[in-house]
Specification:
The chain is built from 16 helices and 21 strands. With about 550 residues, the protein is of the alpha+beta class. Strand 4 and strand 5 form a beta hairpin. Helix 2 packs antiparallel against helix 3 and helix 5 runs antiparallel to helix 6.
Amino acid sequence: MFCCSALPITFHCASIVSADKSAPHAHSTKYPPLITFITSFNIAVFQGVSDRFYFFTGRYCEKIQVLVNLHGDPQSSCQSIICFLTKKSQQYYNKKNTPHQKNRQPQHRHIPHEPCVNFNFSNILRSTTKPYHATMSELLLINITGPDKPGLTSKITSILAGYKVPVLDIGQAVIHNHLSLGMLVEVPKESASAPVLKDLLFCAHTLGIQITFTPITDTEYNDWVHEQGKHRYLLSLLARKITAEQLERVSSIITGHNLNIETINRLSGRIPLENENAGHTKACVEFSIRGTLLSENSFREQMLAITDTLGVDIAFQEDNIFRRNRRLVVFDMDSTVITSEVIDELAIEAGVGAEVAAITERAMRGEIDFSGSLQRRVSLLKGLDEHVLEKIAQRLQLTEGAETLFHNLHNLGFKTAILSGGFTYFGHYLQKKLNIDYVYANTLEIDNHRLTGKVIGPIVDGKRKAELLELIAKKEKIRLEQTIAVGDGANDLPMLGKAGLGIAFRAKPIVRESARQAISTLGLDAILYLMGFRDRDNL
C-alpha cells in the first residue's frame, strides 16, 4: 500500500472515489475529495526523527506533492487529518481546473535531508458508482532489501507469525551480501489495521533495511495463479567470463519472443579478481524463463548467432521433471572424452598420418559414410605392431573437465558409457581410469601381434550408437528422457537426437547446428551445469 524509508506511517483507506467528475463512473458529488474516511491513522515517531513527512496524492496518473506539518501530539484525530486532506485535494482540484493550469505538468518539490513517506494513492484509487468498502482481508506484497545479516528473515517472519499471517509466496536472493526478500501475504481480519505493518516498519528500521508494501488485487493474484500452467524453460549461459553484452543480447532475444525471465542464478563458483588460471576459469548463469515459445527454431537460431560472435555457449531446455532426474550419460570417445582421434595417432605410427587424417575429417563432417571411411582407414594400418596400442594409450590426453565430470557422476550414482566409433582397446583403458560402466566400440583384428587392417564384428556407427543407448537404458530400467548423450561428430547425431539431453561438445559446425545443445567454450564438466549442479555441489 505504501513505501517508507524512515518514518512508519500507516493509512487504511476505506473509501476512495474519483476526483474527476468527468471520469467514467465517477462518484457524483459537487466536491472532489479523494478520501471519504480513514479507518485508522498510526504514526510511530522514532527518537530524533522529525514529525514532518511528505504525502503524495494522485488522480489517475497525475501526482502532486503536498507538504504536511503535524503539530502537537502525533496521534492527532482522524477527523483533523480528513479535513486537512479534503481541503488540500479541493485546492488541488480547483488549481488544476483554472484555464492557465490545465495543460501544465505537475511540479514536484524536492526537499532534501528530510525523512519522508511516499504514499501513492494511484495504487488504490478506485472509480466506481458505489463506495469501496474496506475488505476483511487484503493481499500485500512485502519487499525487503538491505545488507544481509543472520536472523533477519527470522525476525520479519516472527512478526507475521504473531498475527497469524498466511504466506502465499516467498522468494529470497543474496547478491554480494545484499539481501532481496519478497513475500506475498494475506492480512486477515485480525490484523487488517495498522499494527502488523507498523511492527514490520519498526523492525526494518532497527535492522537498517528498506521495506515496501504493495497491494495486490484479487484479479492480479488469480492471473498469477493461472500462469503456473505455462511452459517453463531453462537457459544456461556458459563462458570463461560473463559480460554485460552477453546478458544484454540474450535477454533481448528472450524479450523479443514474449518470454519472461523469472529468476537468474549463478551456478559457477566465485572467481578471484587475481586468477593465475584466467584462461581456464568457468562461469555459468541460469535463466528460468516462463511463457509460450511460438518458434523454437527461430529462437535457437538467434541464440546460436550469439555464440559465434561473443564466445559464449547457450543451452536451452524445457524445465521438467526429467531434467532433474537424469540417470545415464553416454559419451563418444575420440575428441570428446579425449582430445585426439585415436585412429589418427595409429596412422602416424604407421606412416600414413596425412592420408588417414584427411579421411577422418571428412567423415566427422558427415561428407562421407562413416562405416566405409572406417574400413578404408583401418586397412591402411595393416602390419602395425600391436605394442603401439599401449604406447598410444599412455599418451592420450583427457579433455578438460573429464576427470571432474566422471568423478561426480560416479559418486552421484549415474551410469556412464562410452559408445565409440573408435576402438575397444582404448575404451577399456579409459574405463579403468575413469570408472566407466559400459564400453562399446570397434575391435581391431590382430594376428601374430600385428594389425590385419580389419575390424571384428559389426561396426559401431551412428545408427548402432543410438541402438546401444536404448539398449543400456532398457537394461538399467531408465527412460530415454533420463539419458544424456555427448559427442562431436556427425555419426553422434542419432544418439544425440534420441537422448533426453543431447549435447554437441566442441563439435563440427554441422553437428552444432543440428544438436539441441552445444558446449564449445568450456570443458566436459560444464555438462554438470546443464544438469542443474553448482560448483559448490562438487563431491
